[in-house]
Design a protein that fits this description.
The chain is an alpha+beta fold. It has eleven helices and seven strands. The strands form two sheets. It has a five-stranded mixed β-sheet with strand order 3-4-5-7-6, covered by helices on one side. The protein has a two-stranded antiparallel ribbon with strand order 1-2. Helix 4 packs parallel to helix 6, helix 6 packs antiparallel against helix 7 and helix 10 runs antiparallel to helix 11. It is rod-shaped.
């Protein structure tokens, strides 16, 4: 069974969707009210009486015309106000006592005030109030201070005030709605930005893992193929290194891809992220692949924050991978990790002459006739390192060294953009010169 409130709500929605029908209904109601009011005689001394007079035909015509004009109040508010004002003034001038044609002017004035700005409301409202009040006082038979004349001033003033209040409330509601929509758009843009940053971070991690381990697998597989027939023991050793490198690659890929799982998925591996604590293991993989690497470091302070520790490890990993891929035969590398004040400096040097097939120049923009060991143009190694370091507020420089070789130098702030430093723990040995 349909309840009364729901019926009113449906009727209200229908009238809001059909404004012309609403205005026609309003005009008819105003006409009925004016005709009923025209039967009231204001009287003299004893108050108004009802049914002692009947409206003149001229007054009925003016009331019908004024009510008809209200049908167009939304489309032409100023014109409707002018028409109803003229009809009301005409009633005051020619009829005594006048019929309440002023009701239509009150509705028209409210419409103008609710659909224009405040200065326009003040100007139009004061002009309408003044003209109608003066007409009622001058041409009416009652004293100028009678309640009927003061009522004209009061009703037109209240119409202006009510229309202005409605307009202000609509503007306030629209402003709140606009702010809410803008906030929603801002949240969506922030979510898209965070997704893009996370995608870029995962891409860097995948590049670091795949580039390092696949390069080692490629080298060891080539060695195994080369010595398979003549030195099977060495081939078996190379294949064992291939197995270890591929296992490490799978483990790191599992950890990285595990970040993409949704809640309720199987639990991701809980192995800690790589850092300088396993630097010796990283260096050993390159030594087993045939790249002599020396590690020098004087850092004996507290353990670096997790983000800085991971960034330092990835920078060393990518730099050594580039040395192994591009430095050429006989190249050697040196890794240094030093804490200087509130920063950690990572340096990777090599003496490689560069591959003959690689064109001069690197991602860092440097070039050297002697070649270098940077990632070839179009790669993502140095770009990924630079983005990773910049995300922590650090700086990275990479370029050819004078006399040959390549140098990668990263400065990582220990506290900037990484939150509070972690509690001191056993310092991870970075290795001594060997």
């Amino acid at each position: 069974m349909t309840t009364l409130p729901s019926g009113f709500a449906r009727a209200r929605r229908w009238l809001r969707d059909h404004p012309l029908a609403f205005d026609a209904t309003l005009a008819f109601c105003v006409l009925i009210a004016m005709i009923c009011g025209s039967f009231a005689d204001p009287g003299k001394g004893q108050g108004p009486t009802f049914g002692t007079r009947t409206p003149e035909a001229f007054s009925v015509l003016l009331m019908v015309l004024a009510a008809s004009a209200l049908v167009l109040r939304r489309r032409h508010p100023m014109a409707v106000l002018a028409v109803t004002g003229v009809l009301t003034a005409t009633e005051y001038i020619f009829m005594d006592p006048p019929a309440p044609v002023v009701m239509s002017t009150v509705i028209a004035l409210y419409t103008v005030a609710s659909r224009t700005d405040r200065p326009t409301t003040w100007r139009v409202g004061l002009l309408t109030m003044g003209i109608l009040t003066v007409a009622a006082m001058v041409f009416g038979s009652t004293p100028w201070y009678s309640q009927e004349n003061l009522g004209v001033f009061a009703w037109t003033g209240m119409a202006s005030a009510a229309g202005d209040a409605v307009r202000s409330r609509r503007a306030f509601v629209d402003a709140i709605r606009e702010r809410a929509e803008r906030a929603e758009r801002t949240r969506e843009e922030e979510a898209r930005r965070r997704v893009a940053e996370e995608r870029l971070r995962i891409a860097r991690d995948l590049h670091d893992v795949v580039a390092h381990h696949i390069a080692l697998v490629n080298v060891q597989a080539g060695v195994a193929a080369h010595v398979m027939d003549k030195r099977p023991d060495q081939a078996k050793e190379a294949l064992a290194h291939v197995r270890d490198a591929s296992r490490s690659a799978l483990n790191e890929l599992r950890v990285t891809v595990g970040l993409l799982r949704q809640s309720g998925d199987p639990e991701a591996p809980t192995e800690p992220a790589p850092g300088l604590a396993v630097l010796d293991e990283l260096v050993d993989t390159f030594r087993n692949a045939g790249l002599p690497v020396e590690v020098a470091g004087a850092d004996r302070g507290p353990k670096l924050p997790a983000a800085v520790d991971l960034a330092a490890y990835r920078v060393i990993q990518e730099a050594l991978t580039n040395v192994r891929k591009h430095a050429g035969a006989g190249a050697r590398a040196e890794v240094s990790v030093v804490r200087v004040g509130t920063t950690a400096e990572i340096t990777v040097l090599d003496n490689g002459r560069g591959s003959a097939a690689r064109p001069p120049g690197t991602e860092s923009g440097g070039s050297d006739p002697a070649g270098g060991t940077g990632t070839p143009a179009g790669g993502h190694g140095l770009l990924g390192m630079r983005e990773r370091v910049s995300a922590l507020g650090g700086a990275l420089t990479a370029g050819p060294r004078y006399g040959g070789g390549f140098r990668v130098h990263a400065i990582l702030p220990i506290e900037a953009r990484t939150g509070e430093p972690e509690p001191p723990g056993p310092a991870a040995a970075t290795g001594e010169r060997r």
